[in-house]
Amino acid sequence: MKNIILRSLVFVSMLLNSVNLNAQAASGPLVYSGKSNIIINGKAFTSGTSGVAITLTNCSKVVISNCEFILTKDIIGIQLNNCSNVEITGCYFENFRSGVYAVNCTGGINIHCNSYKNIAGIKPRGQMVQFNTCSGAGNKVNYNTLDHTFGSGTPEDLINMYASYGTTADPIQIIGNQLRGGGPSTSGGGIMVGDNGGHDVRIEDNILVDVGQYGIGVPAGYNITVINNKVYGAKQTWTNVGLYVGLQGEVDGGYACTGSSIQVKDNQIKFTNKSNVVNGWYNCTCCSGVVQSGNNFKASITSSVLPANLSLNTTQCGSVATAVAEKKSSDAFDVYPNPAEHLLVVTNLTGSENVQIFNSLGQEVFTAKNNLENSLIQIDVDGFPSGIYFIQINNQVKKFIKQ
After folding, report:
1. Which distant-in-sequence residues (6+ apart) come within 8 Å of 178 by Cβ?
2. What DSSP string describes 65-107?
3. Residue 10 in 3-state DSSP?
4. What CATH topology corresponds to 332-402?
């Protein structure tokens, strides 16, 4: 018993040292209504009120920075209701129902330089970022990264601007994002704008890899620019088209699709549909006159158009990129689902690691060696009693719950 207690104390000490690598302080869910001039910085969230970690309603002039959202599958990271002038930057989101969900917001929603990992979903949620009937100038979703591991959840549209629009002088910006992973939804995909009355949007310099049924979608709208993006999609049972403009159903529903004000320029697309046909581009006759130039819809690009490890743009994100990179490097491996019922998946393995699992008393209940240098392994935890466990890989430790 003495050895078990000592091992448990040592193990708890190791866990505390691992957690201390992250500067965020644990916080319960936050709810603000009718507030302004708020700064939420350096907080860590694992739970939510009414399914949301941070809820802002009728708020303005808010900054949410350097926060960590490692959530259960039923929790939205941040929800904005009727807000304006909210900046979200330098945050890390993982295993979320949706990352940021903005509803009826009226300008100045600036979501930039954040890292997202593994969208839990499910439909109608399942977005990295969604604007729902938002409008006005200063709305931006720029220079974020998403790395979604297939099978860890059910994402829909990674970035969705449902019925949302900027202004002619200042369209909604979706610029410089790096997005990887989607499916198996047959309706979800990468970046969706212009649906249900959306317009005045600029999609530029984004890189998308294997993001779902489609890459970039513009089912309707006007004053929309899609320029200098790279989209790659390998054949899957759910893949359809890399980039499209116009859907008959949107037009039949009464939403304008003014092709002459939609520009599609200098994009590189390589997208293979479920029938193993390269299908980079579709333009519905219901939205004729789209301005095109410089596009390559059978480009010689592969999935390596994105690096194995995504990182924030240091030029655009500055010190934020360094801080997030340090946070990510302290978490060399990931586990999901958490809580786990039958299988525990361990990802981001880099070599010939020793994998050990201990119960809350410090007793070793599983050990193995990743001899094959796989980046992902599955562990059968079906026979484990319910409770708290710690997985140790070399000198790093993470906690998970067995349901």
Report:
1. 144, 145, 146, 206, 207, 306, 310
2. ES-EEE--TT-EEEEEES-EEEEEES-EEEEES-SEEEES--S
3. helix
4. Immunoglobulin-like (2.60.40)
What pLDDT digit, counting tens, does each position of 321-362 carry? 666 665 555 556 777 777 787 778 787 766 667 788 888 777
β-pair partners for 202: 173, 225
Q: Which tokens hold the place of 8?
A: 């448990």
- pTM comes to 0.78
Which tokens hold the place of 78?
């941040």
Which are the contacts of 150, defined by CB distance < 8 A and separation ≥ 6? Answer: 181, 182, 183, 210
Q: CB–CB of 95/75 below 8 Å? A: no
Tens digits of residue pLDDT in 34-59: 999 999 998 999 999 999 999 999 99
* DSSP-assigned letter for residue 305: G
Edge-to-edge order in the sheet of strand 100-103: 30-33, 52-57, 76-81, 100-103, 129-132, 159-162, 189-192, 214-218, 241-245, 281-283
What gap in Å lies between CA 51 and CA 341, rounded to an integer?
Answer: 21
Q: Where in the chain is the domain with CATH 2.60.40.3080?
A: 332-402
**Domain 23-326: top CATH class:** mainly beta
